[in-house]
């Protein structure tokens, strides 16, 4: 049985039993409808792709000229993601961890962050001292933490948003 077919059941407020995959697909559909409405209101073109990645719904808007929906450093994208999560939560009654990407911004940013994590891990390993990275949003911190973990080092977040950052520690 594939990971997507794992039968993780959740009982809804109405007493219905749904698999995790069905729940995440429903979140993706709700998010896609919400985003389609936003695109229609703003008269923007874009195709919406729905997927499930890492036990969360993933929605991407591609095509058209959508860079202004990302904003500089992704702040508009982050705001749209929060609005979309709220739309899903309003519909389902459950908190959503949905990830939104527009014009491949998050995918490209993820690659940059993996490179940063690798370079930072090399520096920590060489100097045997911890390294504090610049403040990052939750998405960026998660990519750094996941990458550092695969490299055999440890990391943790410290501080409060918007100044929350990752500290990477040398191996013991």
TrEMBL record:
Domain R3H, residue spans: 107-172
InterPro entries: Jag_KH (IPR038008), KH_dom-like_a/b (IPR015946), KhpB (IPR039247), R3H_dom (IPR001374), R3H_dom_sf (IPR036867), R3H_KhpB (IPR034079)
GO molecular function ontology, one term from the record: RNA binding
SMART domains: R3H
Residue ranges that the Swiss-Prot or TrEMBL entry lists as coiled coil: none
Transmembrane stretches, start-end: none
A Pfam family recorded for this sequence: R3H
CDD domains (alphabetical): KH-II_Jag (cd02414), R3H_jag (cd02644)
Annotated Gene3D superfamilies: 3.30.300.20, R3H-like domain (3.30.1370.50)
The name this protein goes by in its record: Unannotated protein
Organism in which the protein naturally occurs: freshwater metagenome
């Amino acid at each position: 049985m594939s990971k997507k077919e794992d039968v993780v059941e959740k009982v809804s407020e109405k007493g219905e039993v749904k698999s995790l995959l069905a729940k995440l697909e429903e979140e993706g559909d709700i998010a896609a409808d919400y985003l389609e409405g936003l695109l229609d209101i703003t008269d923007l073109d874009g195709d919406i792709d729905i997927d499930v990645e890492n036990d969360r719904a993933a929605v991407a808007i591609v095509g058209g000229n959508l860079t202004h929906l990302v904003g500089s450093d992704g702040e508009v994208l982050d705001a749209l993601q929060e609005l979309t999560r709220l739309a899903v939560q309003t519909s389902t009654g459950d908190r959503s961890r949905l990830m939104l990407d527009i014009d491949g911004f998050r995918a490209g940013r993820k690659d940059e962050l993996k490179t940063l994590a690798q370079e930072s891990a090399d520096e920590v390993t060489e100097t045997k001292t911890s390294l504090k990275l610049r403040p990052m949003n939750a998405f960026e911190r998660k990519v750094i933490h996941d990458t550092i973990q695969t490299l055999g080092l440890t990391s943790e977040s410290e501080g409060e948003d918007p100044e929350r950052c990752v500290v990477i520690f040398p191996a013991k």
